Amino acid sequence: MEVSELLKCYENGDRDFAGADLSGANLSRAILIGVNLSGANLSGANLSRAFLTKAELNGASLHRANLSFAKMGEIRLADADLTKANISGAFLVKSKLPRAKLSGANITGANLRNAILWNANLCSADLQLANLRGANLTGANLNWANLYSARLSGAKLFGAQLTGVSLRKAHLNGIDLGGVDLNGVNLSEAKLNGVNLEGSNLVGANFYAAQLRCVKLTGADLTGANLVQASLVQANLNWSRLSHADLSQADLSEVTLMGANFEGAELAGATMPESTRRYFCLTAGTMTVGQMQEMSAMA
Questions:
Q1: For 165-209, what is each residue's pLDDT tens digit?
Q2: What is the CA radius of gyration of the chain?
Q3: What CA–CA distance (Å, rounded) separates 296 from 294?
């Protein structure tokens, strides 16, 4: 279908272009509010800065399409193929993308607040600085995705795949990550205040300088984790495993530690109240000679 024909029909009130072949079409800045392009072929199409508010693109092919800075609030993209598409800076508030294919897509700086992305494939997608506040990412594949400085407060991540994901400087305040596998994940300088990480696998995770105030880590496995300069004020570490973790210069003020395992942990320069120091002295049998000397010096 020719672009000129599409735009003319749209101006005449036609909104149904389901299944149209528009591969490689130039629709930059086009106004197509409420259009139905379900099942359409838009592979390689240029839709940058287009107005697609409330459009229907369920099942559409947008492989390598350019949707940068497009206005797509409340758009429907269920099962759409957006593999390696450019969606940077796009407005997708309250958009619906269940099961959408977004692997390798450039989604930097996009606004996906309250978007529905359950079971979406975001493997290796670039989501730096993206706004995902309140988004539903249940069951989503975020393996190897880059979420540097992304905003995820209030997002739902139940059952999400997070292998190799980068969450450096991400905003995750208040979300539920209980039981999630975050083995080796980069969360350095991230904001995780009030997050539920109970029973989570955090082996070797990087929490360097992260904010973990009031975080719930009951039963979590933090073996070998990097918590250097992390703020754990009022954190619940009951029955957590912190063997060989590095807590150098961490703030452990008002933490709860009942049953926690700190065998081989590094605590040089850590901030803690006298009661916490006494706890470590009582459990000194699980610590190295050097660590006991360090604790004595801090006391």
A1: 999 999 999 899 999 999 999 999 999 999 999 999 999 999 999
A2: 24
A3: 5
Contact 146, 130 (CB under 8 A): no
DSSP annotation of 45? -
The DSSP element (H or E) to which 277 belongs, if any, is helix 274-282
Count of residues making up the chain: 299
Task: Answer whether 30's CB lies under 8 Å from 5's CB.
Answer: no
CA dist., res. 91 & res. 88, Å (int): 9
Are 31 and 13 spatial neighbours (Cβ–Cβ below 8 Å)?
no
Report the predicted TM-score, pTM, of the whole model to 2 decimal places. Answer: 0.89
3-state helix, strand, coil in the chain (%, to 5): 10, 15, 70
Distance CA 227, CA 147 (A): 20
| 289-298 vs 274-282: helix crossing angle, rounded to 10 | 150
Q: How many CA atoms lie within 13 A of 120 on its CB side?
A: 31
Count the alpha carbons within 13 Å of 172 in the hemisphere toward its beta carbon.
28
> How confident is the model at residue 272, as a pLDDT?
85
State the residue for tokens 């390689």. Answer: 44
The first and second tokens of residue 21, run together, are 């072949």
Tokens representing residue 135 in the block: 């988004």
| Calpha distance 51→61 (Å, rounded) | 18
